[in-house]
Amino acid sequence: MKERGKYIAFMDLLVTTLFASMYIGNRMHGDDVSWILFDSMYILLAGYFLLRFLLCLNNRIFNYLTLFTVQIWAIIEGIKGVMQIIGMLPSNNELFVCTGSFNNPGPYGGFLALAASVSFAVIACYGRDSLGQWYKVLYFRIQRIVSYSCLLLCLILIPSTQSRAALVALAACAVLYVCIDVRARSFIRKYWFLPVIVIALVVIMVTMFKKQSAGGRLFISRMNCRTMLDNGLRGVGGGHYPEAYGKTQIAYFRDRISFADGTLTYDAADKDRLRADNPNAAFNDYLQMGIEYGLWTMLLFVAVILAALCNLVFTRSPLSYGLVAMLVFALFSYPLSLWQFRIMSVVFMASGSVRDVGGRSIGRVVFTLVMTLVMLLVSFTKADGLMKRHNAEKQWEEERFFFSSGDYESYEYCCSQLYPEMKHNYPFLYEYAYSLFMNGKLSKSEDNVEQAMRLCCNSLLFNLLGDIHKAQERPDEAEQDYMNAFYVLPDRLYPLSRLARLYYDNGDTIKFRNIVDCIKRFRPRVESASTRQIRAEVDELAAGIE
């Protein structure tokens, strides 16, 4: 069946408008770093139109292939997780046993929840009809085997990730199933107490498990909203979320904590002080997009994913369950910062752009083919820079042992070679600046710290900047730097110890005694060997004064 007069689907228009809005946002508020990070968007848009072109050629076949590919991918991820648990493969994070190909178990759990939701939908709703020609019967049998394998593997591994957001995402998919499936609604009416028990258990697990972390996430959400409002809903540019968040948190605690002659005054019962963190991501992709690109782009992004979801539900696609899982997971984590979820978002948007099953419009085929070729051409022009940055990051990871071993001269030389391709990476800039500082190159070190602080207001950066200003005999600026380091993370003792050392070296006895008293009474988030060591070092300085 061919359609006439439809050259561009509504979804294509929304996706293109979203891309244009992000581009304009970078033009208005971004910088070189924003454009470096934006290069990957051209490749994602090219992937979207390529998949759209294939779906326009034959929607049914390529939908089946897409679904099968997602499940096979999830099975491979699951096998990696199992091998990490039994010790056959190393984890990508030394603090956690099971991370798959991710660097953190949380996003890994979210990906498994997405795949489990899709597999459940195939089994429960979309894999019942196995009658017809022999190849259709074979396909449905293979599909069910793959779906059961994927679902079982994901459900076994999700608890090992300890991801609360993944459990909430699964619960959201269960709600979607009840809303769509007639048999499920009948079952719920008959056994209404079962979902009540399940919901109660999920709420208890989410709120009580890692309770302190839950409080910290709520505080981050509050700061995210303040950050968006403080920037007038305009956006700060792509890649500048950590900087904007840090500035907001500094202003927030500066109003609640005061320094006067070295005396630290704060509310000891203030739970926010103990919940504060210095995140690199918003743990809510919608708010992060609003902070970086503005309210309009955030609303446009929500419109795009809701349009895709409506189309997937209308066509009864199993991918609708995966999209719901990802959308819910994005409320509590940072999936769209990771390439695995970015690929899945392209799959969901492209699959959700077609509502007719088997229909084909020649105009849309031509439009998507032209857009695919154009975006691939643009992507090729960006590919060289992306590969250079990727290779530079790999080389940096290999050479970081110089930094950890204290060979700062060798590390400084390595960083100077990688700097042109790594100037968008603030951990790299911090380590480069620290090496320069240790080698006595104070002015150049200060320049790198200030460049890093245009990307992230990190407590480490403020502490290093304070050390630089102290070495340059600029004590007033050093004092302010250490205070800002404390405002960023007001549950840490280290910035206070740097202040004590500054006052001690400057011979400011009054401020030194005051800050020593504060350190003795100070309650950190966690009392550890390092905090006890800091107190001992400060006591040793105080003994010298007395």
Radius of gyration computed on alpha carbons: 27 Å
**Sheet bearing the most strands, described?**
2 strands, parallel
Alpha-beta classification: mainly alpha
| Intertermini distance | 92 Å
Report low-confidence residues grouped into runs of 5 or more.
1-5
> Count the helices. How many?
25
Going across the biggest sheet, name each strand in turn: 1-4
- What share of the residues lie within helices? over 70%
Run of helices and strands: EHHHHHHHHHHEEHHHHHEHHHHHHHHHH
The strand count comes to 4
Mean pLDDT across all amino acids: 85
Shape: globular
The percentage of residues in β strands lies in under 5%
Overview of this protein structure:
It is a single chain. With 546 residues, the chain is mainly alpha-helical. Helices cover 75% and strands 2% of the residues. The strands form 2 sheets. Strands 1-4 form a two-stranded parallel sheet. Strands 2-3 form a two-stranded antiparallel sheet. A hairpin with a 2-residue loop joins strand 2 (258-260) and strand 3 (263-265). The longest helix is centred in the last third of the chain and has 38 residues, at 362-399. The chain is globular.
